[in-house]
Design goal:
mainly alpha, 84% helix
Length: 448
């Protein structure tokens, strides 16, 4: 029993730990723009980033679609001993992701300005919208490269090289930090400088990805052939729940921004940006831990190694919960200090901003529960339950954002985020019990 415990924890660290570390690096990557913009552009820049954030979540949604679905399908294929087919599927993914990325670049640049202009016709707020539009026009150009990075990270885990994900994301994060400092502080390019830095860092990550699969020891062994689209469709079905969940959050963020502007609370847009950046350190690393061990669970399940995958599920749960509570305590105790990190010392952090942040953080432990449950469903290729849960934010959170300001001060609108965390965890728990039973598993068996 003792040997099983240590060997399983070692596997979780090998698969989930490296991806966790990689997504901590990606969190730093995401935070970098907010730090430099908040301290050298000012709160106007942070307010503009609140308008940018929903759009960038669209990029993340498509990256998550390919990352989650591709990881599950390729891991199952490798687990069945069909490595050459897995390599063909990987190639097909890169082609589809690049084509999709180009489409997003074209469509995004056409619609982004009218999409943001309808948020407000107040002349005082047009400057913020102008900043957001200028940032996004440049950022769209990096989408094909961003999707490539997502895919490479997923497939590195599938071929038993999870530590290499850290090298990939770490190098792009470091490049982004250096370029942000150069373009914003030295050249004084402001928001545009942050966007240029992000795109150039993504191009670097793509170059590393192409080198990895062409010249590294893990290069493809099969000729330049591609798999059928039925595998891509299978990936879409598996990853759709995660992707739609992110797209729903995109809609929620857009609706929140419109609500804050309608209540003349533009100053809380800066708090929303800070909250989103901070929560990146909750969602991305936690998602990284569970995403990292998904290929392991998929492969063990395909190989019918029941006791082994049950142990991975069990210890993965405890690891996720411990990390979630540690992050939660830090968020609630150091709220003001964390906010000050992103705001120039010459600009005030109001009591309303602190309340807004704490309302968003107050029920964060439920995020860990939901992340673990949804990760298991994805690993075992459950499509429709994750998809069903992904629609909850529209059903629950939009009415809350509309309703809360009618009875409470506007800063309490952030409480809607905490309440949806509880709803998602509860519904995921209720749904996964029947799903696990259909696979011959039960929650009792996992924790036995």
């Amino acid at each position: 029993m003792r040997d099983d415990f240590f060997s399983t924890v070692g596997e979780i660290i090998k698969y989930g730990g490296s991806t966790f570390a990689a997504l901590v690096a990606m969190s730093i990557y995401t935070t970098t723009d907010g730090f430099f913009i908040g301290n050298w552009v000012g709160t106007d820049g942070l307010e503009a980033m609140a308008l940018v954030y929903p759009v960038t979540m669209i990029f993340i949604a498509f990256g998550t679609l390919f990352e989650t679905g591709g990881s599950a399908v390729v891991s199952q294929i490798i687990g069945a001993g069909k490595r050459q087919l897995a390599e063909k599927i990987i190639r097909s993914n890169y082609v589809c992701a690049f084509v999709l990325g180009v489409i997003i670049v074209v469509v995004g640049n056409i619609f982004i300005e009218p999409l943001l202009r309808i948020l407000s016709d107040n002349p005082d707020e047009q400057y913020i919208i102008d900043l957001a539009v200028s940032f996004l026009r440049i950022s769209f150009c990096g989408v094909p490269f961003l999707l490539t990075i997502y895919l490479t990270g997923a497939f590195m885990r599938c071929i038993d090289k999870p530590a290499h994900v850290l090298y990939l994301v770490g190098s792009t994060s470091l490049a982004n930090i250096i370029l942000d400092a150069l373009f914003i502080i030295v050249f004084g390019w402001g928001m545009q400088g942050a966007a240029f830095a992000t795109v150039l860092a993504q191009i670097l990550g793509t170059a590393i990805s192409l080198w990895y699969f062409k010249y590294s020891p893990q290069k493809f062994s099969t000729p330049n052939r591609f798999a059928g689209l039925e595998y891509i469709w299978q990936e879409v079905k598996i990853g759709a729940g995660f992707a739609i969940s992110v797209l729903m959050m995109c809609c929620i963020e857009y609706f929140l921004n419109a609500t804050l502007l309608r209540y003349d609370a533009a100053h809380l847009l800066a708090a929303a940006t800070i909250a989103n950046i901070i929560l990146t350190f909750v969602y991305l690393p936690l998602n990284g831990l569970d995403t990292g061990i998904q290929p392991l669970i998929s492969r063990l399940f395909a190989a019918h190694k029941e006791q082994h995958y049950l142990r991975v599920m069990r210890y993965g749960f405890f690891t996720t919960i411990v990390l979630t509570f540690a992050i939660y305590v830090a968020l609630m105790i150091f709220t003001e200090e964390l906010a000050r990190f992103f705001v120039n010392n010459d600009e005030p952090i109001t009591a309303e901003m602190i309340t807004f942040l704490r309302m968003m953080f107050v029920l964060q432990p439920f995020v860990g529960i939901y992340t673990w449950l949804s990760g298991i469903m994805a690993a075992l290729e459950d499509e429709w339950r994750n998809l069903l849960i992904s629609f909850l934010p529209i059903v629950v959170q939009v009415p809350l954002i509309w309703l809360l300001p009618k009875f409470l001060p506007i800063e309490f609108v952030a409480l809607s985020y905490s309440l949806i965390d509880v709803a998602e965890a509860t519904v995921a728990f209720l749904l996964i019990r029947s799903f696990l039973r259909s696979k011959g598993i039960s929650l009792k068996k996992i924790f036995a």
